[in-house]
Design a protein that fits this description.
YaeB-like fold; 3 helices; 37% helix; 5-stranded mixed beta sheet; alpha+beta; 83 residues
């Protein structure tokens, strides 16, 4: 599975604390190596794919033709509103 990142994702990412940005980069590297690593909690949630950044942050993407377009990263409460 490939990935792409929407401008909206980067806007939200840039507003995150540096520690969460670092964790997101680490989780993305892990996702590239193994989508199904247990710490990612990578799963389908309705029409979206979800990945766990840490206890309080998630990322969401939409899959099309084998590519996930990551469009959201943020706190779990904002994630819940999206799904």
């Amino acid at each position: 599975m490939n990935s792409s990142v929407a401008a909206e994702f980067w806007e939200r990412y840039n507003r995150l604390p540096p520690s969460v940005q670092a964790r997101a980069r680490k989780q993305y590297q892990l996702w590239l190596e193994n989508h199904w690593h247990p710490s990612l909690h990578f799963k389908r949630v309705g029409p979206f794919w979800s990945v766990r950044i840490d206890d309080t942050h998630r990322a969401l993407g939409l899959e099309k033709d084998g590519t996930i377009l990551w469009f959201f990263i943020g706190r779990h409460d904002a994630y819940e509103e999206r799904i």
